[in-house]
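ok here's (2Fe-2S)-binding protein:
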Amino acid sequence: MFRLLEDDRGRMESTVTIEIDGYPVIARIGETVASALLREGAFWSRTTPVSGARRAPYCMMGVCFDCLMLVEGEGLVRACQTSVRDGLKVQRQTGPRKVGSSC
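and the structure:
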């Protein structure tokens, strides 16, 4: 498992519900959207604009940008750098990015 962004010692059982492409996903407080996505078994976060090939979180440290996803209220973000919070709505990025796109 990946390192949590927040220290949750004593809160290991604390969970929140996020929504990925309209489906509810239970996530642990302190984990990232990318780790929740991978743990859920939904192994891709976006498609490439030219070929439509699926891409997945890769480096998990914000360098490769393969984990870009649309987060409600924030637009396109790196899922590996975004902490989950209750009620968060996330969509996979498919096709070419639209300027000013948001959920």
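+1. Helices lie at 33-40.
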